[in-house]
Amino acid sequence: MRQFDYKRATDAQGAIAAHAGQRAAYLAGGTTLIDLVKLDVMQPERLVDVNRLALSEIEDTEDGRLCIGATVRNTALAYDPRVKRDYTVLSEALLQGASRQLRNRATTAGNVMQRVRCSYFRDGISPCNKREPGTGCSAIEGHNREVFAVLGTSEHCIAVHPSDMCVAMAAIGATVAVEGPDGTREIAFSDFHKLPGDTPHIEHALAPDELITHVTLDAPIHGAGSTYVKLRDRSSYQFALASCAAIVALDGDRIREARLALGGVGTKPWRCHEAEAELAGVAADDTAALAAAARRAMEDATPYKHNAFKIPLARKAIVQAIKDAAARAGQGALA
Ligand SMILES: Cc1cc2nc3c(=O)[nH]c(=O)nc-3n(C[C@H](O)[C@H](O)[C@H](O)COP(=O)(O)OP(=O)(O)OC[C@H]3O[C@@H](n4cnc5c(N)ncnc54)[C@H](O)[C@@H]3O)c2cc1C
To answer: Which residues are bridge partners to 249 per DSSP?
Structure first.
């Protein structure tokens, strides 16, 4: 059995100080971290409990954005009236993630920071460049169906980023506020998660000891409708095979602005800027044009032995999500 010590912090600087100088991990809901400690995949010498930090509020900002504290639980966020009304896509993505019990425990920052579900990463013994750099990627020639990507992969890692919440945030646009030993800074959500490239063990933009304090959502698009379509092997308690967060604003029957992000297929929450550009001015019921945009979104996809089916599946999720979001546009929902 491995020993670790436990510190409960009451403010951000106390947490950061307790984290510094050793192999430590911030402990939030524990739904990823404790699993990985038990599996011996993560081996912290110290857990710094951040649950008592004053970071559990959801607050409006003066410029019309929504600021979410790091320890806001996934359930609280999904059912917040402002999120349900102005960021429907986020509420739906959260409620399709994990299980009720897990959502009651899981936090906003923990969800952003959750680790991959690759079985070779989690078994603790297979070659895995993410867990042990330089050992190889067992998934590339192995079983690579459910939680393996077709976008943003490299010869060193093909694990999907598993979060549903982050896909919605990628579509909405957001900023991650962090605090470290040298002060505070902000990171654009789109820059937060890293592609595996040659360094799959570097998963995010946090510097050593930095703590996520808040995630602030961009202001909602006036008049837009939004939704999250998640396709999976069974309808609850399952990670996405392919998912799409869509936000659509209309001008009459035509799309004025669309925002799309994909889950289940990318090594990070995957924003589809080129496909979004193709949708501007398209009639919202023009299935052929929506399908063309979906093809565009997936044109750089690289299939592996067991997950090629994800490419047409993701295209279907995209078309469905755009149609559903467009149907909601102008019906009182903001995003
Ligand atoms: C069976 C199961 C099914 C699941 N299904 C889904 C699913 O369908 N969709 C989905 O999206 N997710 C799913 N999840 C993942 C779940 O959403 C995450 O485990 C959860 O969001 C992690 O949040 P947490 O607060 O428990 O994080 P923790 O486990 O406490 O921490 C996770 C990581 O974040 C770090 N961390 C925590 N807080 C901070 C902070 N403030 N600053 C910096 N680092 C921090 C920790 O050190 C750790 O590395 C599932 C999990 C399980 C166990």
So the answer is: 257
Give the pLDDT score at 1: 77
| Phi (first) and psi of residue 126, to 5 degrees | -70, 155
Average pLDDT on 137-156 reads 98
Beta bridge partners of 228: 245
| Domains of the chain, first to last | 5-50 (3.30.43.10), 225-328 (3.30.390.50)
Q: How far is it, in rounded angstroms, from Cα 277 to Cα 218?
A: 19
For residue 257, the surrounding DSSP H or E stretch is: strand 254-263
The CA 127 to ligand 1 mean position distance, Å, reads: 24
Closest protein CA for atom 40 of ligand 1: 212
Within 6 A (CB) of ligand 1 lie: 25-33, 35, 50, 70, 97-98, 102, 105-107, 109-111, 113-114, 162-165, 211-212, 239
Distance 257 CA to ligand 1 centre (A): 32
- CA triple 96-113-25, angle to 5 deg: 135
Order of strands across the sheet that contains 5-8? 5-8, 46-49, 24-27
Residue 115 CA to ligand 1 centre (angstroms): 7
Q: Is the pLDDT of residue 333 over 80?
A: no
Mutate to test the pocket of ligand 1, among 102, 118, 213, 229 (most ligand atoms within 8 A of CB): 102
Evaluate if residue 332 carries a pLDDT over 60. Answer: no
Q: What is the pLDDT of residues 101-121, one digit of tens each?
A: 999 999 999 999 999 999 999
